[in-house]
Amino acid sequence: MLRLAKKLWSVFTDDMDHCFFTGTPYCERHHIFGSANRNLSEKYGFVIPLAPYLHNFSPNSVHGNPNHGLDLELKKLAQKYYEEHVGSREDFIKEFGQSWMERGD
Question: In this model, does residue 3 exceed pLDDT 80?
Answer without folding.
Answer: no
